[in-house]
Amino acid sequence: MFKSWLLESMEPEFKVKMVGYEWCHQIWNNLETYFVSQTKARVKQLKIQLRGIKKSTTINQYLLEIKKIVNTLAAIGPALNTVEHIDAILDGLSEEYDPFITFVLTRTEEYSVEQIEALLMAQEERLEKHKRSEGDPLQANLAQGSFHTRKQPNNQGRGFNNNGTNGRGTHIGRDHGRSIQNYGRGNKQ
């Protein structure tokens, strides 16, 4: 009677796998073997997937993607310990995070996952700030040009006049102090 109830409660795909078993314990052991092997395969697949995650969006989305896999692993099998979780986070970061990774790995005290996540979010903000300040060379050039314009608005009163000479009759340029009248006439001085 229990055997018939057990078989009736199964999906058709599982009933096919139970053909030939006479006793309930045989059916039960077969189901256990099937689900254990499926779970092991899923754990292996998730760990491979975890090692393959690379940060390609924001750090928050990256951390959520890792957390989802870590939570799934904890639900179906052995959970990752803190070191494995942090290793998974650090392994997927790009080279711009190398100084951060070195700092974390060389520290004698261990961080919690939450501390690493908070530090990474702060690091991402710093990297974005640097990218914004370096990202617009046109604006940087305009700012530099306006700085020079403000710094030297009028050269009068500083030993310069408007014709490009320093007020002593010599031209500032390639002729190194020779007057313009003498330039090109055999360079007599």
TrEMBL record:
Which superkingdom?
A: Eukaryota
Region Disordered, annotated ranges: 146-189
Q: Where is composition skewed (Low complexity) in this entry?
A: 154-169
Biased amino acid composition, Polar residues: 179-189
Q: What is this protein called?
A: Retrovirus-related Pol polyprotein from transposon TNT 1-94
